[in-house]
Amino acid sequence: MTTTLPVGATAHTFDSAGTRCAAWHFAATSDELARPAGRPVAVLAHGFGGTKDSGLAPFATALAGAGIDALAFDFRGFGASAGEPRQRLRMRDQIADYRAAVSAAARLPGVDPERVVLWGVSMSGGHVLALAAEYSATRDATGGSRAGGTRGVAARLRGAGQAAAEPREAGGVATGPQVADTAAVGPRGQAVAAAQPRVAAVVSLTPLVDGPAAVRHAVRHGGPLASLRGAAGGVRAGIARLRGEPGLIPLVGAPGSGAALSLDGYERSYRALSGPTWQNGIDPAVLLTLPGYRPARRAADITVPVLMQIADFDRAAPPHAAAKAAFAARAEVRHYPCDHFDVWPGGDFHPAAVEHQLHFLRRHLG
To answer: What is the dihedral of CA 47, 45, 208, 334, to 10 degrees?
Structure first.
């Protein structure tokens, strides 16, 4: 499926474990953060079942206006990216796609590979914390950490030289000219080693950071009956898969519908953002893996600046769990008296959320 490119974007593709992932590159429209090595670049991905054409462009455009290139991408199996089965959300696979996107972003023309920003929202807001801990371990092992004090020392003792652990999973992951990601080449066409990307900052917006807390939060707000309906829908979808059918449940729906997200008002909010490639379906297996998803456990290992943006009345991503992770990561924290979707384009708190992101990034990338 194709979608019209947003103003200022170029269609881009990159490979992740043999799967083509689709992305939009928003080149910086300002030189305010440029250095001789190039401009900083942010890598953006959507949350639970989302696609890049469902509200990411306004965030990316704002970053580009501040002098930060932005690469917004779709996870495998979603949106314009390839990958089968469709609509299957596996945390391990999505984090691998993020790694591949970081490498692709670091090779964009005019970009400084040592000033990469990890930008995530909702579930991908948890992914970026796990990745930041992984890149922090690499940075410390090579002597590049800018963090001092006990946190930097502890991170080196725990993680130097080791690959970061993947989040645990129960049971076990456009129109316009296309630009494909390629290996770096020298002036005579010879292959040269690409610069190793380095994460300079993290933006985590209304993040889901603790699966067990999210399950308890969902029961508290939706009630046990809604949770049972969701489980029943998952069983029916599993039976459908055994018959060779897609076996999906609705991603969003009205209260009592058995959708993965069925809190009052959430269907309206999600559909208001949804773009042409978004599909209202999700493999229910993700609901079984959610209790094993705990990126907050790695927060203390992060040695780069983190901005944590918390919606205090968030009914989807537990705000108390995000606050605990922010404390462990020594993050800068911004609070908004709103629900999960109110920081998105069209929401009352979207302008403030963007303003705070730009203020944070200008300080740490300038």
So the answer is: -120
Q: Alpha-carbon distance 44 to 120, whole Å? A: 6
Look at residues 314, 324, 366 and name the one whose alpha carbon lies nearest to residue 121: 314
Tell me how far CA of residue 86 lies from CA of 10, 50, 72, in angstroms: 24, 13, 19
Cβ 73 vs Cβ 181: under 8 Å: no
Tokens standing for residue 349: 């708190």
Residues paired with 311 in a beta bridge: 336
Angstrom distance (rounded) from CA 160 to CA 202: 20
The full DSSP string for 92-139 is HHHHHHHHHHHHHHHTSTTEEEEEEEEEEETHHHHHHHHHHHHHHHHH
**Residues 21, 79: Cα–Cα separation, whole Å:** 9
Q: What is the 3-state secondary structure (H, E, C) of 10-69?
A: EEEEEEECCEEEEEEEECCCCCCCCECCEEEEEEEECCCCCCCCCCCHHHHHHHHHCCCE
- Looking up tokens 């494909």, which residue turns up? 180
Task: Kindly report the pTM of this predicted structure.
Answer: 0.85
pLDDT in tens, 278-309: 999 999 988 888 999 999 999 999 999 999 99
Domains recognised in the chain with CATH numbers: 9-220+294-365 (3.40.50.1820)
